[in-house]
Design brief:
single chain; 122 residues; mainly beta
C-alpha cells in the first residue's frame, strides 16, 4: 500500500510557473514508477508525465513537453512537477500516482493522491 499526498496547487496567471509536490508513504516509494495526471471539468483524466525509479526514463504528454519537468527524490519519498509557461488549458486537478510498471495509462496506476487544483487565469 502506498499513500500519496499532493501539494502546491493554486492560482497563477498565464505564462507563470507553479511547482507541485507529492509525498509518498507506506511501501518502498523508490520501487514504484510515478506519474502525474490531470483532469479538467467535464473531461477525462489525462496523462501528463511519468518517471521510472531512477529518473532515467521519463515520458511527457505532447501538450506539456518543454514546459513541464518531472523529478523525484527517493530519499525524501517525494515526486515533483515543475510547471512553466502555464496556459489556461493547463487548468485542472492534478494527481500523482504510483504504478508497478512504466506506463502512461491511468488504469495501470494502482495508487492515487487526492489531487491538487491548478488554475491558470488568462
Amino acid at each position: 500500500q502506498v499513500q500519496l499526498v499532493e501539494s502546491g496547487g493554486g492560482l497563477v496567471p498565464a505564462g507563470g510557473s507553479l511547482s507541485l509536490s507529492c509525498v509518498g508513504s507506506g511501501r518502498i516509494f523508490s520501487s514504484y514508477f510515478m506519474g502525474w495526471f490531470r483532469q479538467a471539468p467535464g473531461k477525462a483524466r489525462e496523462f501528463v508525465t511519468s518517471i521510472n525509479w531512477s529518473g532515467e526514463f521519463i515520458r511527457y504528454a505532447d501538450s506539456v513537453k518543454g514546459r513541464f519537468t518531472i523529478s523525484r527524490d527517493n530519499t525524501k519519498n517525494t515526486l515533483y512537477l515543475e510547471m512553466n509557461s502555464l496556459k489556461p488549458e493547463d487548468t485542472a486537478v492534478y494527481y500523482c500516482a504510483a504504478s508497478a510498471q512504466f506506463s502512461v495509462i491511468a488504469g495501470t496506476f494502482a495508487y492515487w493522491g487526492q489531487g491538487t487544483q491548478v488554475t491558470v487565469s488568462s
